[in-house]
Amino acid sequence: MVSDSPTPRGYAVLPQRFRTTPVKHEIEVRNSQFIAHLARVETEDQARDFIESVRREHRQARHVCTAFVLGDRQQTRRSNDDGEPAGTAGAPILEALTRRETTPGHDARPPARAPEVRDLSDVCAAVVRYFGGVKLGAGGLVRAYSESVSTALDTVQLVRREPMRIWQIQADPGRAGLWENEFRTAGWTVDAVDYGARDVTVRLALPETEEAASLLGSQVAALSGGQVQPQAAGERWVDVTGRTS
């Protein structure tokens, strides 16, 4: 079963590295080249800056058609046909993004029988077309632009972005490495490790549940002999690799 609505407790995104190094994937359809560029973005300004960078890279291209989706519920959706017949480029690119089936905690190609959702967001796609001399017709353009984005997404392992509670643990420098390994083994997301002059602060991102807080408290008590307690340090959205929801 596939849900058409993004889950309110998280959504699929491209990994952070695709903020600065976009996905690039090329297909050829009847001698025309379709080069899809995908980037992780979080604002409309970032999306438009990325689109302009693709235009500068491909100044000779007749068409750079685009779409982007933003927000934990895909609230912001924009598309542009850039001179192609209306509805044959921007709309299918946008649909390839918003209708992408993902599996929470897995990659963009969900395994059999896994629960599937359509919740990819914070992504911008710019598809460059170099005309190959053969007209594709409206239907051919729709299929080509959609396929260019879908096959580009096939090459990427997505991650989850979830609202998480941040906890800080003060550790002795001699035990910080061991504690960090124990936290990772337990499945917690290590958000940061800050080394100070006298101690080490380990920051963890945990699900916003009392059960998770209780489990962490018990683990820290066991590691420290009851001498250390986790300290709440706010909440924020965090990329969580491999977590199911």
From TrEMBL:
Residues 30-102, 117-153 form the Impact N-terminal domain. Residues 75-115 are annotated as: Disordered. Transmembrane segments: none annotated. Gene3D superfamilies: Impact, N-terminal domain (3.30.230.30). Residues 170-213 form the UPF0029 domain. SUPFAM superfamilies: Ribosomal protein S5 domain 2-like (SSF54211). One of its GO terms (biological process) is regulation of translational initiation. Pfam families: DUF1949 (PF09186), Impact_N (PF01205). GO terms for cellular component: cytoplasm. Residues 97-115 have a biased composition (Basic and acidic residues). It comes from the Bacteria. Belongs to the IMPACT family. This is Putative translation regulator, IMPACT (Imprinted ancient) protein family.
